[in-house]
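Quick illustration, no need to memorize.
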Amino acid sequence: MDDEDTSHGRFTGRAALVTGAGSGIGAAVARRLAAQGAAVLAADVDGAAAEAIAKELPGARPVTMDVSDADQVDRAVEEVVRTWGRLDVVVHAAGVDDPEAKQWIAEALLDERPPDVVTRLDGAAWRRVMRVNLDGTFHVLRAALRVMAPRRSGAIVTVGSSSAFDAPVGYPHYAASKAGAHALSQAVAKEAIAFGVRVNTVAPGPTETGMAARTPAALRQDLADPRVRPYATAGEIADVALFLASDEAVNLVGAVLLANGGAVHGVRGSWGCASDCWCGSAVAGRAVPRAPEGAPTEPELFDIGRSV
C-alpha cells in the first residue's frame, strides 16, 4: 500500500446499501461512505430516520426496510441497481436487542442474585431477536449475492457482536443470534469468494448507540472497566466496517474482527459482576466456576475461541 492517505475518495464510483442506517453504527457508516465518494441507499425500518440521514448526504437515497422481511430486502437491493446500475458495497448494521431482558439482568444485579431470564423468556421475544438478527442477515447476504455474484465483484460487511464470544449471562437469545450471524457470514464468505465477492464481519463490544442508551444504568456501570477503553463510538466501529469493505482488506475473507477495546466480559463475570459471583469468570482461557458453597471450585480449561 502507498504511504499516502488514500481513504478520501476510496469508494468513489461505487454504490452502497447500508442497513440500520437511521441511527448508530449504520448512520456512521452511511456518512463515512458518502464522504469517501460512495452513492448510498440508507435503509432503516424507521423510514423517517433513514430520510433524515439521506438528506445529510450528497446523492444518497432513503428507503424504509425491515430486514426480517425478505421481499423488502430484495426490493431495496433492486432499487440500488435501478438507481446506480450496480451494487458494490453492503454494510448490514441493522439489529435489535431485548430491553426487557436487560432490565431483568439489571434487577438481579442490584438484588445480588442470579439472573432468571431463560425461564421467563417467551417465544415471541426469542423469535423477534432471531428474526431480525439472524434471518435478517441471511436475507441481506442472499439478496446482495444475487446481484454481486454475476458481476464477480463486491464487498459485504455484517455487524455482529462481541456477545457471540462472551455469551453474557441472561442474554441467550441475543448471543445466539449474533453467534449464528457470525457463522452464517463465514460460511457464505467461503462460497461467495469463488464469485469474487468478499464477506467479513465486525464484532463490536459496547458501543454508544441508541441500543446502548436503553441499557439500564446498573448494567452500564457494571460494564465499566478502567483497565480497558470505554464504550466505543459508532464512528470507531464504522471505520472498521469501511476498512473491511475497502480494497485495503482485499485479502480478508470470512474474517470476524473483534472490536471491543480490550474488554473481556467475564473477568468479573459475564456482566461485570463480582469476582466471586455464582456465574464464574474467564481469564486467559481459564474458566473459574463460582458455584454455591460446597460445590466444586477447581478451574477447568476451555478455549475462548475468539476470532480475530
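The radius of gyration is 20 Å.
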